[in-house]
Specification:
Elements: H1 2-16, H2 21-59, E1 71-77, H3 84-92, E2 100-107, H4 113-126, E3 132-139, H5 145-155, E4 160-165, E5 169-170, H6 174-179, E6 187-196, H7 203-225, E7 236-240, H8 241-246, H9 256-265, E8 275-286, H10 292-313, H11 320-323, H12 325-356, H13 359-387, H14 392-396, H15 405-426, H16 437-444
Parallel strand pairs: 1-2, 1-4, 2-3, 6-8
Antiparallel strand pairs: 4-7, 5-8, 6-7
Helix pairs in contact: 1-2, 1-13, 2-7, 2-12, 2-13, 3-4, 7-13, 10-12, 10-15, 12-15
Length: 445
């Protein structure tokens, strides 16, 4: 760590000529505790988990018996139009010998006739497949995504339930990859991996593609191997149907994915054998925001909902009796300290630096810190590319972003603090686009 900091201090001196190396290095050392106690141990845990995953895959004994239970895919639709056909087709064409039931719930059907029409046009095509079934549910009143998921849950006939977004498509081996985990009766849910479909659009979408590669494709592999999956994505989650019904389905209009994950984990204290696993070979493809306004509004909702779930709705659930020691530890460390406390520390450190230190030293200090984060990003990227990636040629095209990715991450950390303050001050979860305002207000009561 010291050698790396000294290297970037020398770089800063060579580049600027005006930087005060000693002061900058001392100030950079002040930032080390944030990295040493909050981020570096988490990264080491991820690396150990990835190593375990890689070696386990090499020496795994192939399964000898088939396992093809009936699968129900609940596809929540709102305003996708003809694009929903691609999602249905990607499910219809799965290389899975078992039965796949596709329940497409159109929320606010009267306001979305194009989506409803597109789904009905797909029905003759699906009927050509003996083991596929499409059910179109036009839900006239708009009740939000949770309402659509619960409507699909009530009609589901499969042992395994997939909760999917209508704007997400899937590799044709996805169902086979996730279904196999449910051979183990203790597996109650599987988190799938997401890739950015529109990654070529501009610099912002490329940044998000690299972020998904590191924070989803890599981090969840590492944490999943150590039984520490933090969240099951709302766009691509797989559950044991019986378990979802047992806990009452989905219950909130905002951040319903994290809410369900935390409610499932509240059974882990009583049933220590229960597991949520991550399957990196089950790939979904989704579009990310292409404009900075859309991106910032998305993260304002995501990070604000995180604060709402951890600090308000499920604050009392973090007990060893309910969640077990390991889940409490990871929830406090990763969910609270890393994702909520770290942005506060970074912003406070940055403000103090700008106010109290000469501009040249500020630039030199940030050169050192951003260089350190670039090294960590490079190590995470190489790990994902070598040990996990199933599309290496595509992922290799993101390598040139690594030197500037820390600046993008810095913007996200600052915006996380804005989102946390916005939720704390204004209860922004009640303004979510995932459901009408009257549904959100009633849910709060």
């Amino acid at each position: 760590m010291t050698a790396i900091l000294e290297f970037f201090a020398e770089v800063a001196t060579i580049l600027g000529g005006l930087f005060y190396e000693t002061d900058a290095l001392a100030l950079a050392y002040m930032f080390i505790p944030f990295v040493l106690f909050l981020e570096l141990p988490l990264n080491l845990m991820i690396w150990l988990g990835v190593l375990r995953y890689y070696t386990r895959r090499i020496y795994a004994v192939p399964t000898q018996y088939p396992f093809t239970p009936r699968v129900t895919c609940v596809v929540t639709c709102y305003s996708e139009g003809d694009a929903v056909k691609g999602t249905v087709r990607s499910l219809m064409e799965q290389m899975y010998p078992g039965q796949i039931e596709i329940i497409a719930v159109v929320d606010g059907a009267d306001q979305n006739p194009s989506t409803l029409r597109a789904l009905r046009e797909m029905m003759p095509e699906v009927e050509q497949y003996a083991s596929r079934r499409l059910v179109v549910v036009p839900k006239t009143p708009r009740g939000g995504r949770v309402s659509s998921l619960n409507a699909g849950l009530a009609m589901a006939r499969g042992e395994i339930l997939l909760a999917l977004d209508a704007d997400t498509s899937f590799d044709n081996t996805m169902v086979t990859e996730v279904a196999g985990h449910f051979r183990d009766p203790n597996v109650i849910a599987v988190a799938g991996s997401l890739r950015v479909r529109n990654w070529r659009r501009n610099l912002l979408t490329r940044f998000q593609s690299l972020e998904y590669m590191i924070t989803i494709h890599l981090a969840k592999v590492g944490l999943g191997e150590l039984h520490g999956v933090n969240n099951i994505s709302g766009a691509f989650g797989v559950f044991r149907t019986e378990m979802v019904r047992k806990i009452g389905g989905w219950t909130t209009g905002s951040a319903e994915d994290l809410d369900l994950t935390l409610r499932l984990k509240q059974y882990f204290g009583r049933y220590p054998g229960f597991r949520i696993v991550f399957e990196p070979r089950a790939i979904g493809h989704t579009d990310c925001p292409e404009t900075w306004k859309g991106f910032l509004m998305q993260r304002l909702r995501w990070d604000g909902d995180l604060f709402y779930m951890y600090m308000r709705k499920h604050r009392s659930a973090f007990s060893v009796r309910q969640m077990g020691f390991w889940n409490v530890l990871l929830g406090v460390w990763y969910g609270m300290l890393f994702q909520m406390v770290m942005p506060v520390l970074i912003v406070m450190y940055t403000l103090w630096l700008v106010i109290a230190v000469a501009p040249a030293v500020v630039v030199a200090t940030f050169t050192i810190i951003m260089g350190l984060y670039a090294v960590l990003t490079f190590l995470m990227y190489i790990t994902a590319l070598v040990f996990i990636s199933e599309r290496r040629s595509r992922d290799a095209r993101l390598a040139w972003l690594i030197p500037i990715f820390p600046f993008f991450a810095m913007i996200m950390r600052i915006w996380s603090l804005v989102a946390i303050i916005n939720e704390w001050w204004r209860h922004s979860n009640q303004e979510s686009s995932m459901a009408p305002w009257w549904v959100l207000r009633k849910g709060k009561r």
